[in-house]
Specification:
single chain, alpha+beta, Immunoglobulin-like, Neutral Protease, domain 2, 4 domains, seven-stranded mixed sheet, 14 helices, 42 strands, 33% strand, globular, disordered N terminus, binds zinc ion, Peptidase_M1_dom, metalloaminopeptidase activity, Peptidase_M4/M1_CTD_sf
């Protein structure tokens, strides 16, 4: 489970007010020299901003007129400015915005390159609840100054925003004693007196935001090499801090080697006062619970550190699609899995999410992705993009792939980059034309469906000839694909693995082997982004939560209390899940519909046995006192159990059974199960639902694996399966 979100400039994405050109590398960014005083008790901020206008924004012959916007609650002291500043009537005033804005114009005479703006006011946008549907949603505030803490970003409009995305800054902050503050870049100065905490942060490289986060922090630090590691916690915890400091060093060393020098003077873990998982340039802002989840250290944490390269080192031009989440997921989350030998499972989960949550209506090209706000946007913006980079690596090989990424990082550091810039870099560095590749994966929605047919082997004078047909059955033009194939030879312990290029709807394979081929697998390690066949995916909760129009069947033969608890669960899912859930009682149905995804609730549900029957192959059985599962017996009176199975007559549909005999456990299941989407079966203990058993069914009937028909011996039987070679991880 990763709880990470990039904090994106909502202005740009939602409103598109600023239509600026992207700053060129050679150009100086606009520079803010800020003196800030924060008064958390009264939500007040006082600012003096000396704004240095870069040459390319100034007219050399006439006065320069520039417009900027600022939070409407901040009043500008015009008489304190050394330039002519006037407030404009704002044509966008009634437009939906996260914060109210005022627009201003400033006129600078020829030769003047900076001006001073003094302003102050109160900012307090209360933290709002997250959306219920998406388990990964967080509470949100565009900005606030409060006793619990301070969060200011470009979304707050707390500093003047010009029609230029990129800025650099020098930030001098005064806070009450006992407080501390963090921004991007380098901590230049710090000082504490009995009443005041004074800190100075600076970042000279172009940034797409200026953050100011403050709170009553306990700070820890450790420096080896050029990068300082900091941890800011809201309560002292030295052991926890040390884990983060060590992890910071470890991951920065790894990415230095893989991609290039880490771009900032520090990396800080900062604890927020509400639950977030934001990655900012040179720090990450994680909520109090998130910080203390043990798995964060090797899931979200490397991901956030890597965002300093992708997203916060090379910036994203959100108007042209966000490539940074997929690349970060690939080189952090996927790489961590790959190092543990779990790359195949990771990619299968990614493809499964796409299969379970993205139908035609929800699909869109990754060039339109900005940030995730639902399982389907995650499956595309993170999953499909990640797989695109994986396929580029498959095509180029590890060495060349990382070379291209290094070149991309070097060339676009501290600038905004787009998918087109990636294409240009891949073409130039690898000396190949990836235009078709980018066209089909970046600018088109959808995915190929692969089907394997007619695999046969015929003896030749020497050895055997294998023939088979691979079909692309999706609608629309066929994709150009490099498809990995494994062929298992009767006399070899390791399967032969190769890649074939296909670009037609029907592709005939003909290959010669020295000994008898007995099995062929198409894409056995999930290296191609494609729509999985339902038989390649174990049944799992995600199919229940992702279904358009699932049926939910309540048990009748239960106590009033249990009935009430199941009913409440159904109502909760109706409110919080995407599909439109139809709810009935088991006594209202004669038989179980065969062509729908169905939730069957309760040990006592009259249809529960039908689900057991379809899991007989997995050794699942109901007993008088409970359930037999994976060789263990789970007692009905102590355990809550969840099982999933394919609908026997329609493997695209899923049966899901949820059963508990305590109403408190049922209530807890309602909230908890959406977090266990990828599992085929789950067992929980007690009313607090401690998870004691979970897993995915193994796949036995993949249609992309075929035993090969032997034309010389139709009775030939072999159960030989060779081994597949594991892929070396991209970094150690
Ligand atoms: Zn991310």
């Amino acid at each position: 489970m990763a709880y990470t979100f990039r904090f994106i400039p909502y202005f740009l994405v939602l409103i598109g007010v600023f239509c600026s050109a992207v700053a060129l590398a050679s150009e100086q960014p606009l520079h803010h020299q800020l003196k800030v005083k924060l008064l958390p008790a009264t939500s007040e901020i006082q600012v003096e901003d000396r704004i240095h206008i870069p040459e390319h924004m100034l007219s050399q012959t006439t006065a320069t007129r520039l417009e900027f916007s600022l939070h409407a609650a901040l009043s500008v002291a015009v008489n304190k400015s050394d330039a002519n500043v006037t407030q404009l009537t704002d044509p966008m005033a009634n437009h939906a915005r996260l914060v109210p804005l005022k627009r201003y114009a400033v006129t600078l005479p020829v030769g003047q390159t900076s001006f001073l703006l003094t302003y102050n006011g109160q900012i307090h946008h209360a933290v709002r609840d997250p959306s219920l549907e998406y388990a990964r949603s967080f509470s949100y505030s565009p900005g606030l100054i409060a006793e619990e803490g301070v969060f200011l970003a470009s979304s707050t409009a707390w500093y003047p925003r010009f029609a230029e995305d990129m800025v650099s800054f020098h930030l001098d902050v005064r806070l009450p004693a006992g407080w501390d503050g963090v921004s991007q870049g380098k901590l230049l100065q710090e000082q504490s007196t009995a009443t005041i905490r004074h800190i100075v942060w600076e970042e000279k490289h172009p940034q797409d935001d200026i953050y100011l986060v403050a709170g009553r922090y306990q700070r820890y630090q450790q420096t080896t090499g050029p990068v300082a590691a900091y941890v800011y916690l809201r309560s002292a915890d030295e052991a926890l801090a040390q884990q983060y400091l060590d992890a910071t060093e470890r991951y920065i060393a790894m990415y230095n080697q893989l991609i290039g020098p880490y771009p900032y003077a520090k990396f800080a873990l900062v604890e927020n006062f509400w639950e977030t998982g934001y990655g900012m340039p040179s720090f990450t802002l994680l909520g109090p619970r998130v910080v203390r989840f043990p798995f964060i250290l090797h899931t979200s944490y490397p991901h956030e550190i890597l965002h300093n390269y992708w997203g916060n080192g090379v910036f994203v031009d959100y108007r042209k699609g966000n490539w940074s989440e997929g690349l970060t997921a690939y080189l952090a989350d996927h790489l961590v899995s790959e190092r543990e030998g779990k790359g195949v499972e990771y990619r299968r989960d990614v493809l499964q999410k796409y299969r379970d949550f993205v139908d035609k209506e929800k699909d869109f090209p990754i060039s339109q992705f900005t940030s995730r706000h639902s399982p389907s946007t995650e499956a595309i913006g993170y999953g499909k993009t990640m797989m695109m980079f994986h396929m580029l690596r498959q095509t180029l090989g590890d060495e060349e792939f990382t070379q291209v990424l290094r070149a991309f990082y070097q060339q676009y550091q501290f600038q905004q980059a787009t998918f087109d810039d990636l294409l240009i870099t891949f073409n130039a560095q690898a000396d190949q034309d990836f235009s078709t590749f980018f066209q089909q994966w970046v600018y088109q929605s959808g995915a190929p469906n692969l089907v394997l047919e007619s695999a046969q082997a015929t003896p030749k004078e020497q050895g055997y000839q294998l023939t088979a047909v691979i079909k692309q059955t999706q609608s629309g033009a066929p994709y150009l694909l490099n498809v990995p194939i494994a062929v298992h030879l009767a006399e070899e312990s390791a399967a032969r693995q190769m890649q074939i290029k296909i670009d037609q709807a029907i592709h005939q394979i003909t290959m010669d082997f020295p000994t008898r081929p007995v099995q062929i697998d198409i894409d056995p390690q999930f290296d191609v982004f494609r729509r999985l066949d339902s038989r390649e995916i174990p049944s799992a909760l995600s199919q229940g939560f992702g279904a358009e129009n699932p049926l939910l069947i309540l048990p009748t033969d239960v106590s009033e209390e249990l009935m009430q608890a199941y009913q409440t669960l159904a109502t909760y899912w109706q409110k919080t899940q995407t599909g439109s859930l139809e709810v009935v009682r088991d006594d209202q149905l004669q038989s179980l519909p065969a062509n729908r995804t169905i939730w069957i609730l309760g040990w006592q549900n009259k249809f529960s046995q039908q689900l057991m029957n379809s899991l007989a192959e997995q050794g699942v059985a109901k007993t008088a006192e409970g359930l037999q599962l994976n060789g263990e017996h789970w007692q009905q009176n102590k355990h809550a159990v969840v099982l999933t199975a394919r609908q026997p007559a329609d493997p695209d549909q899923t049966l899901l059974w949820v059963a508990a005999d305590q109403s408190a456990a049922i209530t807890a299941l309602a909230r908890k199960l959406p977090h266990y989407r990828k599992y085929s079966y789950l067992v929980f203990e007690g009313n607090e639902l401690n998870n004691v058993h979970k897993g995915q069914w193994s796949i036995t009937h993949s249609p992309l694996t075929q035993r090969i028909t032997q034309t010389d011996d139709t009775d030939f039987i072999s159960d030989h399966v060779g081994t597949l070679s594991p892929r070396r991880a991209l970094a150690k």
